[in-house]
Automatic annotation (TrEMBL):
Protein source organism: Pleodorina starrii
Gene: PLEST006493
Pfam families xref list: Leuk-A4-hydro_C, Peptidase_M1, Peptidase_M1_N
Bias type Polar residues, positions: 25-36, 84-95
Protein name as catalogued: Leucine aminopeptidase
Binding residue positions for Zn(2+): H422, H426, E445
């Protein structure tokens, strides 16, 4: 198996065509490059001392109202950010007030400026009052400059469409006072929009009387910062084609607020429409269905008339009809081409990679059909894939209608496409049925891993399900070992109160402990025959909604009330106890057993110090005909056996040589091997490990490899050098996380 992988892809990776070299131009860390507003008045929380401004509208329509005076922000005392989260929403990661007023639709106009690394934007937010007479709308923001806020009359706007409606609305727009609360280090700054009282001193409110159930529309003109944590701007040299810049966003978990003003809580589900202007010849894609342009309709950006790009542009238009949480907003801009690989699937990427992507992801339609058979109707219309440049920090991201994937999946043999099955599974668990807050993240990820494995099992048989489940258990044990069995972040339901950053808590725990729990529940109530209908019922009952772990418990208990065994679940231990789960699952290991047996032979040989030839009788034939997944299973199981102590470097060297590890183009195989070889102080692995850190930016690989290198004697300096050189090319989130892991400062990104 090893060394036989697709030669074209292997060649590409060996010749570093992915061009993940040092950037020729990159992000400015400071705010200074934010374009100066055309008129005074824009406000960004970090640039302005609190209370030191009077917002002045700069929207064309609002300007006619500008004689109006605004109350000073100091007229009303503003509680500190954490105090103010109490009772506003049950989401400790949002400063918005969704329990009082909730955004249900956003209509965006976005102008993407790749030179200045900013997005100029206007959003019309449609909201519904959850209580009588709400006094203010609180929106999450981080690193955004807000230029103006305006109240739009009822019924205004045509969901991004009709010019006439926009004009009519703009004519009657009324500027609203706004201010920021004190910035919170992790959560950002709540943008406070005071809602006019009906019939107050300024006459009747354009919003009309606000009672529970009333709807209102608010317009916000904003600009992102070049240091937005949601956006990575890539210089041409960081792309495959090398000639055009590129941009992509990553909003999960709490980065949407650095892209657009929004209620950045999973509970604030909204539909959206967008028009996006980009320089020619680039293409924009979003987590939505592209809309056909009709001449004269919806193609303009009427609220961004102050932004006039000095180059030719293209405008793209999108609609997302299904309400989505803001963390699923996504945008990518670049030189993009697409190839259809199924009736509702197109693989997009830079032109030079699209054929490889289309080959790798050819099974997507089958995954989708299997997902529908298990979980019900696919409601999103399209399922396209965007193959990103190598700095994409995740394996995949389930942006609706347009999953984002890392090019590290391009093994050539479709062996890593379980990631696509996973992202497809999110179409039901996560995107349709959503965790109420990031404390209940396992409801997204644990369920999605469960569904991913059910999809793979349906397509390839029960032993495949068992194989992946067993692999997951190895991963879970390794993660608990790494974090420590009493680490509170090994709880299935962690406590994120007090503004804990969900990125800091991210681990395999919600994935694998979540899966482990669901498998346990399945077996408890009678296996798949009983659990599969439950899964479908759970999805159908919670679609378009969010839920907490406790709501899941209640649903499960009610559904299985006639199954006595269901009463034996120790919910509190499962949810709140740290460490390994309270029960031990057993899986069908028929496919994994060979790999585990081989791992045991190498483990024994290493422990016994038998020598440099590997286990008695070992030969390349041990792994001939193996899938790359079996190879990974072997290496990871060996890692589990050797967890207490590193291996001997002569044994890792022998293993690499015997099984052709360095010839493999499979990123997972290399990664699993490096996790053994680096702690073993196997110097021959260091150049290849460092190359992996330089030519891709997926955190799953970066973080463990950097940590291992930095802990090792022979790799410490290499880790620091490599991070200093490659760090500026990483995605902002990856850069931050690696710096935190290593206790190093973030490498400075050169100014544009
Ligand atoms: N939604 C996640 C990625 C994510 C999680 C982004 C948290 C930001 C914050 C995605 O579905 C995912 O889990 N991707 C995995 C795939 C794997 C589990 C098959 C990945 O990136 O490796
Ligand atoms: Zn996921």
């Amino acid at each position: 198996m090893l060394g036989r992988l697709s030669s074209a892809l292997a060649r590409r990776s060996r010749t570093s065509q992915l061009r993940f070299g040092p950037p020729t131009a990159s992000l400015s860390p400071s705010f200074s490059s934010v374009p100066q507003p055309l008129t005074p008045g824009p406000v960004s929380p970090s640039a302005r001392p609190r209370g030191a401004f009077r917002p002045r509208p700069r929207l064309a329509a609002a300007a006619s109202q500008s004689s109006r005076t605004y109350p000073s922000p100091l007229h009303r005392p503003i509680p500190g950010p954490m105090a103010s989260t109490a009772n506003k929403s049950n989401d400790p990661s949002s400063l918005s007030n969704i329990s009082e007023i909730r955004v249900t639709h956003s209509d965006f106009e976005l102008d993407v400026n790749l030179d200045k690394k900013v997005i100029e934007g206007y959003v019309k937010l449609d909201a519904v009052c959850e209580v009588d007479a709400p006094t203010r709308l609180l929106l999450d923001t981080r690193d955004l400059t807000i230029h103006a806020v305006e109240a739009l009359p009822r019924g205004s706007g045509g969901q991004g469409g009709q010019q006439a409606a926009v004009d009519a609305a703009a004519a009657k727009a009324v500027p609203l006072p706004f201010r920021f609360e004190e910035p919170h280090k992790v959560l950002g700054s709540a943008l406070v929009v005071d809602l006019p009282a009906p019939g107050g001193s300024s006459g009747s409110s354009p919003l009309g009387p606000l009672t529970r159930g009333s709807v209102l529309s608010i317009g916000v003109r904003f600009t992102t910062s070049p240091s937005s944590s949601a956006v990575q701007f890539l210089a041409p040299a960081q792309t495959h084609g090398g000639t055009h810049p590129y941009l992509f966003t990553q909003c999960q978990a709490i980065h949407a607020r650095s892209l657009v003003p929004c209620q950045d809580s999973p509970g604030a589900k909204m539909s959206y429409t967008a028009v996006v202007r980009v320089p020619q010849p680039l293409t924009a894609l979003m987590s939505a269905v592209p809309r056909e342009q009709h001449p004269g309709e919806g193609a303009g950006l009427p609220h961004l008339s102050d932004v006039q790009p000095p180059y030719p542009t293209n405008v793209f238009s999108f609609v997302q009809k299904v309400p989505i949480p803001p963390y699923l907003l996504a945008l990518a801009v670049g030189e993009l081409a697409g190839v259809d690989v199924g009736p509702r699937t197109r693989v997009w990427s830079e032109p030079g990679m699209v054929a490889a992507g289309a080959h790798e992801f050819a099974d997507t339609a089958k995954f989708l059909e299997a997902g529908e058979a298990i979980a019900g109707e696919y409601v999103w219309g399209r399922y396209d894939l965007l193959l990103l440049p190598p700095s994409f920090p995740y394996g995949g991201m389930e942006n609706p209608c347009l999953t984002f994937v890392t090019p590290t999946l391009l093994a050539g043999d479709r062996s890593l496409t379980n990631v696509v099955a996973h992202e497809i599974a999110h179409s039901w668990t996560g995107n349709l049925v959503t965790n109420a807050s990031w404390e209940h993240f396992w409801l997204n990820e644990g369920f999605t891993v469960f569904l991913e494995r059910k999809i793979l099992g349906r397509l390839h048989g029960a032993p495949t399900f068992g194989f992946h489940a067993a692999q997951g258990a190895v991963k879970l044990a390794a993660e608990v070992e790494r974090l420590g069995a009493d680490n509170p972040y090994t709880r299935l339901v962690p406590d994120l109160s007090g503004g804990v950053d969900p990125d800091d808590v991210f681990s395999s725990i919600p994935y694998e402990k979540g899966f482990y729990f669901l498998y346990y529940l399945q077996e408890l109530v009678g296996g798949p025959a009983a659990f599969d209908p439950f899964l479908a019922a759970y999805i159908s009952a919670h679609r378009h909604a969010t839920l907490t772990s406790d709501q899941f418990r209640k649903f499960f208990e009610a559904y299985f009330k006639d199954v006595p065994a269901s009463r034996s679940v120790d919910w509190d231990t499962w949810f709140f106890a740290p460490g390994m789960p309270p029960v031990t699952n057993s899986y069908d290991t028929s496919l994994a057993q060979q790999a585990y047996d081989l791992a045991m032979r190498w483990h024994t040989c290493d422990v016994m110090g038998i020598g440099s030839d590997g286990p008695p009788g070992a030969s390349p034939a041990d792994v001939s005909g193996w899938s790359s997944e079996q190879m990974v299973a072997f290496l990871d199981k060996l890692g589990q056996f050797r967890a207490p102590q590193p291996m001997h470097s002569r044994v890792t060297k022998k293993l690499a040589e015997m099984y052709g590890i360095y010839e493999s183009n499979n990123a997972e195989i290399r990664f699993s091997f490096f996790k053994l070889a680096i702690p073993a102080e196997d110097d021959s692995a260091l150049p290849a490990a460092a190359a992996m850190l330089r030519n891709q930016g997926r955190m799953k690989f970066l973080r463990p490899l950097y940590r291992a290198l930095h802990r090792s004697r022979g790799g410490r300096a290499l880790a620091e050098e490599t991070f200093a050189a490659a760090g500026p090319s990483y995605h902002p989130i990856a850069r931050k996380m690696v710096a935190a892991d290593l206790g190093l400062p973030e490498p400075v990104v050169a100014a544009v």
